[in-house]
Write a structure and sequence with these properties.
The complex is a heterodimer of chains A (about 400) and B (about 500). By secondary structure, chain A is an alpha+beta fold. Helix content of chain A is about 25%, strand content about 25%. Chain A contains ten helices and 19 strands. Chain A has helices at about 45-55, 90-100, 145-160, 180-190, 235-245, 255-270, 275-280, 285-290, 295-305, 355-360, and strands spanning about 30-35, 45, 65-70, 80-85, 100-110, 125-130, 165-170, 175-180, 195, 200-205, 220, 225-230, 315-320, 325-330, 340-345, 350-355, 370, 380, 385-390. In chain A, the strands form four sheets. A seven-stranded antiparallel beta sheet of chain A has the order 8-3-10-1-16-15-17. A six-stranded antiparallel beta sheet of chain A has the order 11-12-13-14-18-19, with helices on one face. Chain B is α/β, with parallel strands linked by helices and about 500 residues long. Chain B has 16 helices and 23 strands. Chain B has helices at about 5, 35, 60-65, 90-100, 190-200, 235-240, 270-275, 295-310, 325-335, 355-360, 365-375, 395-405, 415-420, 440-445, 450-475, 495-500; strands at about 20-25, 45, 50, 70-75, 105, 120-125, 145, 155, 160-165, 170-175, 175-180, 205, 225-230, 245-250, 260, 285, 315-320, 340-345, 350-355, 385-390, 410, 490, 505. Classes of the chains: A alpha+beta (about 400), B alpha/beta (about 500). Chains A and B meet through helix 5 and helix 9 of A and loops of B. The complex binds iron/sulfur cluster (2 copies).
Chain lengths: ~400, ~500
């Protein structure tokens, strides 16, 4: 299906890196798709592009994006910043700030090309490979771990330097996103140029807010990338949790908060992935009562201690990360109000996740597919295969 | 002696009556039940005929017992010349104080017509993108925990994941409601028994009040939060251990800054034993705890109580909502409290100086919001449970209180009303004709604990059902996702500054 010849009406506005005035909350319906090479081979951007495009009914041209993992094997130890700038002036300011705090190992313009159906202005998009400057404190704080230092830099730029947005900041990964249909964004970045071990992607159908480039998914902090279809009715509560832990909600979408919660629970609090997933989409108390005593206790305390991490409302989310291993996680809300299908190729080389079956079939007609239990994550890792199908006992299945 | 000195020393002003029982003699059968039931002696018998006498407080008891519905209580028109400034209330106060020379006492929370901010707040509802949830068909959970929260837990991996650290004493409740502290002494034995029975039946917590705990009530221990007030009445090791949680009472919404006073007449044998004080003596709890003059002192008492209860119970602190409540709450969490109870200025009580009751403190709506915000800003909100009360009248108030930031709605007056209280505001006189706020054996017997408990149970079951309907309608399937979710509220009142302080958007503002 080519929408290029007959595009849906476009909104008149198109925002760059600067958040539209008064826009504090963006959400939507959306299509999501992910594909991973379990054996460590690489997958071309074309494949994810066609998966996402197949679900054209799930978007309305107000945002799409892709994240690729295993993308920069030659820069494994460096954080890759992909940054949107509104103009040269803010770019210069941000770069000066970077120089104060970061070693910049390499900088380059991210390839993009004009797409006839997309309305300018487009942000200027740059890529920087960086590491924290040795011995540099963060406003007097000398105790920050490297990852936390990077988060501070990202939050600082995104919240205080208007006209600039760091849209991804992880190692061995990058996010390509913008305001347009999935095929337009794929075309704009020419994602066929890239290949990696894991792709996650998203196309938006927002319901009550305008779109802007940095507001598109995936939302990313460090190497976490999150694509989300749904509306988190507990957003106000979830936001409190991340703010209490020092994250600043700069993009202020519910998806941004989800990426911070993964970072907090798994990287900082060291919860196993499925324990974190349980906190985000817990079983009901009635279901918890049916568990064995140890699991019951764990489940209860996950609900008590991480009450603010509970993502209430309809959602399906795809999560990617590259540290310590390239990992794909798929999770649907505890009532399964949004679709999420997972699958694999018959030869066990590829794993898939998507909102709809057609997205998987279009690239792997003979795929074996299934759906996960509500609140139960599907987890796959490069080199290890599918380590959790999403139908196991809540606290069994995967080791990180 | 001169004529002058013969004059009366004291000139009592007789105040005009406010209410008058009106008896319909066409239907009155002269059974005289009303005469016996009126503990305020406002109905008399003259020439074998029931007649009004004066002193009616509109408690409604006579109406309830009259077999032929022959009684009507009429508010009398004001007998004061109208004046916009010197209101009747002002003048009555002056006459009463000129008569007595004392502090004016009253009960049941302020009756001044302050704005109710709850009524200026509107709730959200789910639409297309976040579907609503029908609680009749799908689970909508209201289980709530009272106690400290660890902020993080440790999970050990192995064959099977396990909890490896972080848990502490916590109380599970079936709904986010706590029955507020009403002490034995301010209310009758039967009243307290009914409250404890209801708490057990509902699987929630009821406050003991500051009067200690009668041994008969140890059977309800799992559903009682005991109070340690400045007077330390009834506080001993077995009291502390025979309850589910312990709460240090620093302040109370109906009388912020003040202690407690139970008049000697109310200190019967039962009360004297429970409170561990001599029969017939006034039970005066001092304003401050005489071992708490700083936050460090509070920290010490919290530690002592935790030690005394072998770290087996959550220890909380109750404060009245005052202007700096956010910072105070933050200090309390840092001092180690597992839960904080905030009591708003419309809180009820059995006896309070009117001047304090009507003029000191903060509306609970604002207090909850600022405490929740302050604790969030300081990264402490996930360490503590917040109970809030003082002016929660219905499930809508409770739901809004939760969305503003309270985990638990603390409710007392509504429970008393469910038992029969007509809010006549005479509790301090110990003559409660409904057997609630009295120690007089004959009056006390009027309250059947089983029936009163059943009424309280039905009331809160209904509220909980309404809570489930409302949050389901918001697309939320468990109440913890409502706590502090101010995003789902909008302000429609007259004062945008209040909305700002409470962190509320105003009506018409969308997400973005
Ligand atoms: S019982 Fe109550 S309402 Fe009736 S006359 Fe006495 S005080 Fe008035
Ligand atoms: S408890 Fe009794 S005395 Fe107090 S207000 Fe209610 S009815 Fe009146």
């Amino acid at each position: 299906m080519s929408r290029a010849s007959n595009p849906l009406p476009k909104p008149e506005y198109a925002y760059g890196a600067a958040r539209p005035a008064g826009s504090t909350y963006l959400m939507g319906g959306c299509g999501i798709a992910g594909v991973m090479a379990l054996d460590g081979s690489t997958i071309s951007g074309n494949r994810i592009g066609s998966m996402l495009r197949t679900m054209g009914e799930r978007e309305n041209g107000l945002g799409a994006g892709y994240a690729c993992y295993g993308l920069f094997p030659q820069h494994l130890d460096e954080y890759c910043f992909q940054v949107f700038f509104d103009d040269e002036e803010i770019k210069k300011r941000v770069e000066e700030f970077f120089k104060d705090y970061l070693e910049i190992h390499h900088a380059e313009k991210v390839y993009s090309r004009p797409v006839q159906t997309m309305t300018p202005p487009f942000p200027k998009i740059w890529r920087y490979f960086v590491t924290p400057k040795p011995g540099k404190d963060w406003f007097g704080n000398t105790q920050l771990a490297q990852d936390d230092f990077i988060i501070q830099v990202v939050m600082h730029v995104n919240s205080t330097m208007n006209g600039a947005q760091i849209v991804s900041s992880g190692k061995n990964m990058a996010v390509f996103k913008g305001n347009g249909y999935s095929y337009e964004i794929a075309d704009f970045y020419d994602i066929s140029r890239y290949s990696g071990n894991l792709w996650i992607s998203h196309s938006r159908f927002p319901t009550n807010s305008p779109a802007w480039w940095a507001g598109a998914h995936p939302m990313s902090v460090l190497d976490w990338g999150v694509c989300h279809n749904g509306e988190i009715t507990s957003y106000g509560v979830n936001k409190k949790l991340v703010e209490m832990n020092g994250y600043k909600c700069t993009v202020q979408t519910d998806t941004e908060v989800v990426s911070y919660i993964w970072d907090l629970l798994v990287r900082k609090h060291k919860l196993p992935i499925q324990a974190a997933a349980f906190a985000m989409a817990p079983w009901t108390h009635e279901e918890i009562a049916t568990l064995d005593p140890d699991s019951r206790k764990l489940a209860t305390w996950l609900r008590i201690a991480y009450r603010e991490a509970f993502l209430n409302g309809p959602f399906s989310i795809l999560v990617g990360r590259s540290q310590p291993e390239i990992t794909l996680i798929a999770l649907a809300d505890r009532k399964k109000l949004r679709p999420m299908l997972v699958g694999k190729s018959p030869d066990d080389r590829l794993a898939f996740c998507a909102s709809e079956e057609c997205a998987v079939r279009t690239v792997q007609p003979d795929a074996i597919t299934w759906t996960c239990n509500a609140g139960s994550p599907f987890i796959a890792q490069v080199g290890k295969g599918i380590i959790r199908a999403g139908i196991e006992h809540p606290f069994q299945g995967a080791k990180q | 002696m001169s004529e002058k000195t013969d004059r009366p020393k004291r000139m009592e002003t007789r105040l005009p009556e406010k209410f008058m029982p009106t008896i319909n003699y066409n239907t009155c059968v002269q059974c005289k039940r009303c005469v016996n039931e009126c503990s305020f002696q406002a109905i008399d018998v003259r020439d074998n005929k029931v007649v009004p006498k004066g002193g009616c407080v509109a408690c409604g008891r006579c109406i309830a017992v009259c077999p032929t519905s022959a009684i009507e209580i009429r508010p009398l028109p004001s007998q004061f010349p109208p004046h916009g400034n010197w209101t009747e209330r002002m003048r009555r106060g002056i006459y009463a104080q000129a008569n007595s020379g004392g502090v004016l006492l009253s009960s049941c929370g302020t009756d001044e017509p302050y704005d109710v901010i709850f009524e200026d707040i509107l709730l959200d509802a789910a639409q297309v993108t976040n579907p609503s949830i029908d609680p009749l068909r799908e689970p909508v959970e209201t289980r709530t925990y009272l106690g400290g929260r660890p902020g993080r837990i440790e999970v050990c991996e192995g064959e099977h994941m396990k909890l490896c650290g972080g848990e502490g004493p916590i109380i599970e409740m079936d709904m986010p409601i706590m029955l507020g502290h009403v002490s034995l002494g301010s209310v009758s034995y039967n009243t307290q028994k009914a409250l404890f029975m209801a708490a057990k039946e509902l699987n929630i917590i009821a406050g003991s009040g500051e009067g200690g705990l009668h041994e008969d009530f140890y059977v309800y221990a799992d559903h009682i939060c005991s109070e340690v007030a400045s007077g330390r009445f009834g506080v001993n090791a077995s009291y502390l251990k025979n309850t589910a949680a312990v709460e240090i009472k620093v302040g109370q919404g109906a009388k912020p800054g003040l202690g407690g006073h139970l008049p000697g007449e109310k200190v019967t044998k039962l009360i004297s034993e429970t409170r561990m004080i001599p029969l017939g003596t006034d039970a005066l709890s001092p304003y401050p705890h005489h071992d708490i003059y700083s936050i460090e002192d509070l920290q010490q008492l919290i530690s002592v109580l935790k030690e005394a209860t072998e770290y087996g119970r959550p220890v909380g602190v109750k404060i009245a909502a005052v202007h700096n409540v956010g910072a105070i709450a933050s200090g309390i969490v840092r001092a180690g409290a597992d839960f904080i109870t905030i009591d708003g200025f419309k809180g009820g009580t059995g006896s309070a100086p009117r001047v304090i009751r009507d003029n000191a403190g903060l509306p609970i709506e604002v207090a909850i919001a600022v405490v929740d915000k302050r604790l969030t800003d300081e990264g402490l909100r996930n360490r503590v449970t917040i109970a809030a009360g003082g002016g929660i009248r219905c499930s809508a108030d409770m739901i809004k209180a939760i969305a503003l930031g309270a985990d638990i709605a603390m409710v007392s007056t509504a429970a008393m009303i469910a038992m029969g209280c007509r809010v006549c505001q005479q509790c301090h006189r110990g003559l409660c004709p409904w057997g609630i706020a009295t120690q007089r054996e004959d009056l006390m017997a009027r309250l059947d604990p089983e029936q009163a408990a059943a009424r309280v149970v039905r009331l809160f079951r209904a509220w909980n059902e309404e809570l489930r309907e409302v949050i389901g309608g918001m697309g939320i399937d468990s109440v913890e996702s409502l706590v502090g979710n101010r995003d789902r509220l909008r302000y429609m009142g007259p004062n945008p500054k209040i909305a700002e302080v409470m962190g509320l958007k105003t009506v018409g503002e969308g997400w973005g």
